[in-house]
Amino acid sequence: MTEATGRPQVELLTRDGCAICERVHARLVELAAELGFELSTTDVDAAAAAGDPALRAEFGDRLPVILLDGREHSYWEIDEPRLRADLAR
Q: Does position 1 have pLDDT exceeding 90, yes or no?
């Protein structure tokens, strides 16, 4: 949860040109409106170019990756039933 809002934080790790990432992002936008979580997106290649290669090194071969409150939740697809359950806790 973010300290500022007290709401869960979902971060989508992605890269430019990733069609699956775009589809997952669109669904996460819908879920964020419904379930009330904060959604952010990080391009792992842009982060690496800016001097932070850690995300690309760890997650770059299985994008998109969804982090919930900074921890890996799912990758390639949204595990929507699990995400809903985890957000309800």
A: no
